[in-house]
Amino acid sequence: MQQGHDPRNDNLLININGVLMQRDVARISPFDSLVQGGDGVWEGLRVYPGGIFRLQAHLARLRRSAQALSFTEIPSIQSLQQEIARTLEANDMHDGVHIRLTLSRGEKITSGMDPRLNQSGPTLIVLAEHKPPVYDRSGLSLMTSSVRRFRPDMLDPKIHHNNLIQSIMAKIEANAAGCDDAMMLDDRGFVAETNATHLFLVSGGVVRTSRLVACPEGITRSVILEICAAEEIPLAQRDLAQAEFYAADECFCTGTMGELAAVTTIDGRSIGRGEVGPMTTRLSACLSQVIASECEPIGLPCGSQPSHGETPS
User: Are residues 75 and 145 in the same domain?
Assistant: First the structure.
């Protein structure tokens, strides 16, 4: 993992409900649903020189998740784009930036879990940081977590919600084991994903990944599926056992935060030759090409100006 302090982020302006605030004073209410119960949805976006990669897909997923949680008010795609653009412009950000976009059910009139206590509208947070992809491209180590992913009838993984305690508990186990991340199984014992990314294996020239049974839809995952189709690379989506990963020729993970990164060790076992494999290298290069060609420009609507502490009209 390559996350750490970046001095360029010391004076960030963070956008909360359209108001841009210095990071050391940016706060939400203790009555906000995020604080009360993790009641919110989120997206991770990455900014490249040409714009944001697959912005519309990310924003559509955010809105679908909010609809599934029965938010009474959900910002439009246009308003979400505008607040992202204002935040990037205010921070003079153009490349190498990760955005954490969070939408909560909003502030409650008193503490409690009943959504009827939310009467002020949602809380939108746009947090943009200077942050390169967080994974070491030379190869990651995973361990299998004891924490299982829910199946859809327990908690639908298609809802990209802020209840991340499963992932955090799995990450704690990975840290204790001295590994980069944790591989997580579903309730049947098949591999779901890691605590933060989707997993793929390569065996006999075939790329394989788990079905979307106990893991969320992935934007980067979907791009890899498209690349395999375009490049005529054999692909299979099915239930995958731990033993199949142990015996794989290659393994890699995908996600917005880390793009595509090789996995070279799982539970102390070297995967393939224990190094970045040729299929991983090929798909990584293809992903870079897709990103370069499909970034979506984002800019302020004519006449809009960033706010530095005043609620926009």
Answer: no
Segment 65-109, tens digit of pLDDT: 999 999 999 999 999 999 999 999 999 999 999 999 999 999 999
Q: Per the confidence metrics, is the pTM higher than 0.90?
A: yes
C-alpha distances in angstroms, 170 versus 182, 185, 281, 284?
6, 11, 28, 26
> Tell me: the pLDDT tens digits for 5-61?
999 999 999 999 999 999 999 999 999 999 999 999 999 999 999 999 999 999 999
CA distances from 279 to 10, 221, 228, 269 (A): 39, 15, 11, 20
Tell me the C-alpha distance between 148 and 271, whole Å: 23
Asked, for residue 300, whether it belongs to a domain, the answer is no
Q: How many domains does the chain have?
A: 2
223 lies in the same domain as 274: yes
9-13, 57-61, 135-139, 272-276: which has the minimum mean pLDDT?
Answer: 135-139
